Amino acid sequence: MGLISLVIVIATVGVNNVVEADTNSPPGSTDDPIVTKSYVDRKIAEATGVGPVGGGAGAGESSKLQVVTVPLGKKIVVQDGGELIVRSGKAVAYSTDANGLSDMTDGLDIAPGKPVGTNHLILFPRGGRGVQADPKQKFGLIVLVRGNYQIQ
Predict the structure, then answer these.
(1) Which superkingdom, per the lineage (predicted)?
(2) Bridge partners (DSSP) listed for residue 103
(3) pLDDT in tens, 7-51
(4) Which DSSP letter does residue 90 get?
(5) CA 74 centroid distance within chain
(6) Structural domains of the chain, with CATH
(7) CB-based contacts of 147: which residues, under 8 Å, 6+ apart?
(8) Own/partner pairs for 37-41, CB < 8 Å, 24+ apart?
(9) Most CB atoms within 10 A, among 4, 41, 116, 151?
(10) Closest CA to 136 of 72, 69, 71, 70
């Protein structure tokens, strides 16, 4: 009985010391820093060797928006599941078949050869589709692209 009582006393004193240590430091101090979720995710990824947890388009550069300049006379063809936003210039839809592009901003289908609105989010459910600069303008396009693409 004496040994069990001693273990209980030591455990109780240890728990009290831990609780007191946590309450003595104000949040945000050097003893109890406030950290961001991204910092914690990065540290967990470093410790486990596994990439950060969360949703998104996938790992790698394809999940980031890239600024791309499309020269006049060329077109940008976006792969399956890619996204594009025309930032400057007048763009027209391009497709190898009769199907168009999905304008997520207006909720419309843009037929090949029709204008693509500036600052509209365009989804490419299938590859082989893209945008090109309107041949009536003097300059190319500047677009934001998420996903794999080719300039042709």
Answers:
(1) Bacteria
(2) 108, 122
(3) 565 656 555 555 454 567 777 777 777 878 777 878 887 777 655
(4) -
(5) 27
(6) 2-48 (no CATH), 63-151 (2.60.120)
(7) 57, 62, 78, 79, 81, 82, 83, 124
(8) none
(9) 116
(10) 72
